[in-house]
Structures are given as structure tokens and as C-alpha cells.
């Protein structure tokens, strides 16, 4: 039987910042999936890894 690989720890704590008594989200939530599902930040877009929702950034002129 194949050996099971160790699961990597979740690193969701990197998506939040604590400022005094308040918590700030650093990444945007997906509008389709709701709270708790963060969108990945790319060079020209934001993408949800769960449902595939994509928002493109506006071009700067």
C-alpha cells in the first residue's frame, strides 16, 4: 500500500491582519461563494479557486 503524504497545514491566517481590536481581511471574498472563500490575486485579474469566477482589472491610461 502506498504511503500517505503529510497534509500541509492551512495558511488562512495569512489572509487576515490584526490592527488593535479589529481584524482586517487582506484578500477579497468571492461574490458567488460568499464569506470564507477568498479570491486569488493575479497581475490582471481576481479569480475564485472554487467556482472559477473572474474579475478583470481596469486598464490604466
Q: Can you tag this structure with a few keywords?
A:
single chain; mainly beta; 6 strands; two-stranded antiparallel sheet; 61 residues; extended
What does this entry look like structurally?
The chain has 61 residues and is an all-beta fold. The protein has a domain at 15-56. The chain has no helices and 6 strands. The relative contact order is 0.16.
Structural class: mainly beta
Spatial arrangement of strands, main beta sheet = 3-4-5-6
Total helices: the number is: 0
Tally of strands: 6
CA gyration radius, whole angstroms = 16 Å
Poorly predicted residue ranges: none
- The gross shape turns out to be extended
- Helicity, in percent? under 10%
What distance lies between the first and last C-alpha atoms, to the nearest angstrom? 58 Å
Give the amount of beta strand, in percent. Answer: 35-45%
Mean pLDDT: 87
Sketch the major β-sheet: 4 strands, antiparallel
What is the string of helix and strand elements?
EEEEEE
Q: How does the SSE layout of this entry go?
A:
Elements: E1 16-19, E2 22-25, E3 29-30, E4 34-41, E5 45-48, E6 54-56
Antiparallel strand pairs: 1-2, 3-4, 4-5, 5-6
Could you give a quick summary of the protein structure above?
Helix content is 0%, strand content 41%. It is an all-beta fold.
